[in-house]
Amino acid sequence: MGVRNELFLVYFYAILNFHLYCVASLDFKGFPVILVPGDGGSEFEAKLNKAVVPHSFCIKKTEKYFSLWLNLEELAPWVIDCFVDNMRLVYDNKTHKTSNSPGVDIRVPGFGDTDTVEWLDPTHLSVTTYFSPIVSAMVKWGYTRGKSVRGAPYDFRKAPNELEDYFQNLTELIEDTYMQNNNTRIVIIGHSMGNPLTLYFLNQKSQPWKDKFIRSHISLAGVWGGAVKTLRLMASGDNLGVPIVKPINVRREQRSMPSTAWLMPSDTFWTSTEILVSSPFRNYTVNDYSEFFIDVDFPDGYLMRKDTEHLIHPLKAPGVELHCLHGNHVDTPGQLIYTKTNWPNAEPEVIQDDGDGTVNIRSLQGCLTFQGKQAQPVHYQIFPKAEHMEILVRKDVIAYIQNVLLTF
Ligand SMILES: *[C@@H]1O[C@H](CO)[C@@H](O)[C@H](O)[C@H]1NC(C)=O
Ligand SMILES: *[C@@H]1O[C@H](CO)[C@@H](O)[C@H](O)[C@H]1NC(C)=O
Ligand SMILES: *[C@@H]1O[C@H](CO)[C@@H](O)[C@H](O)[C@H]1NC(C)=O
Ligand SMILES: *[C@@H]1O[C@H](CO)[C@@H](O)[C@H](O)[C@H]1NC(C)=O
Hints:
By secondary structure, the chain is α/β, with parallel strands linked by helices.
C-alpha cells in the first residue's frame, strides 16, 4: 500500500469520525448536569509564604501552588501538624468571618470541569474516587465532560454565609451550561453537604429563574438536619476513617471550619430530652451547645453555630422538582459517651443510630418535609444499606440517575 492510500484512509477515517461525532451529538438527549460536592469533596491548592510554622521541618514558602487537599502525603503522621496549620481557618469573632491561616493562599481548582470532583487527588488514586463512577456512566450515555456535565467545587470549610462569590459563580455556570446545551434546563446532583448548600442557593433564587434554568435536584445522602458525628469532631476530633490520622491531631483544623458548625444536629430533628453527648459532668442536648463549646474549650464554636444555624432553618422547600435518595441501616453515631479518662480529648464510646454511617436517618429523611409544600414533585427513595460514600458507586443509584437524566 502506497503513501497515498494511507493518506486516503486517514482522510476517510477523519470524515467518518466527524460524521459519527455529529450524529452522536445530535442524537444525545439528556439534561445537562452540575455536580455539587460535599464536605471534603473539592480539591485545594495552596501557596505558602509563612512567618511561623509549627515545626522547623514544615515548609514556610513555596514558589508555586501545590496540592493540599486531598494529598495523602500531607496526612502522613510526621507532617500532619504542618498540614493542619495550612488547612485551618482563622475566625474573627468581631466580623464573624473566617480567613486562611496567615501566609497561606488557597484556591479551589477546576470550577466548571469535572476532573477535581471526579477524583479528590490530582493523581487519581483509586481510593480518592468521588463522582467518577457517575460521570463515567454519564459519558457512556452520551454526556461530554466540561460541556453537558460540569463540576462546581468550592471551599467546603465555609458555610453558605461566606460563599457569596461561589453562589454568584454557580449562577453563571448554570446559565452558561443551559445555553451551551441548546437552552436545556439543568439537573443539579449534590452529595451530602452539597444538598443543603444547593437548598440554600435555591432558596435565594426567584421562582422564574428556577423555572427557567432548573429541571430538578437529585440529592444523594443529603444532610437536611445535621449529624451527630459533627459533635465528636468538635469535641475530640475525627480522623474521618483515615487510620493513620490521629483524631486529636486534626481537631484544630476541623473545629475551625464553620461548615462543621452548620452541620450540627438541628433542633427541628432532635428534641430537648435526647442526650447527644454525655460527659462525666453533664449531658448535652440540642439546647446545650453554648455550654458544650465552653466545656470543650472552644467558645468560638458557639459563635460559628449561631452564625450558621439559621441558614436553612426552618427548612424551606426548594421550589424545584426534587429526587431525594439515601441509604439506611448502616451504624451511624447517635450518641457520644465520654468518661473521665477521655473527655473531651480522646475518642468517646459511640451509641449507634440508624443512618448511612455518617448522617442520622431522621436528617436524611428531612426532605420529606417538602412534600406538599411546593408545586413541584418531591420523589423519595431509600437504597437499602447504601453507605454515605458508597451511594456514589451503587448501580441501582446510577440507574435511577440515568432514568432522571434521559427522560424528557
Ligand atoms: C473574641 O476573641 C478574643 C481573643 O481570643 C477573646 O478575648 C474575646 O473574649 C472573644 N469575644 C467573644 C465575644 O467571644
Ligand atoms: C468566582 O469567579 C471569579 C471569576 O472567574 C474568580 O476570580 C473567583 O475566584 C471565583 N470565586 C469562587 C469562590 O469560586
Ligand atoms: C434545540 O432545541 C430546539 C427547540 O427545542 C429543537 O428544535 C432543536 O432540534 C434542538 N437542537 C438540537 C441540536 O438538539
Ligand atoms: C446523664 O443522663 C443519664 C441518663 O439520663 C444519667 O444517668 C446521668 O446521670 C446523666 N449524667 C449527668 C452528669 O447528669
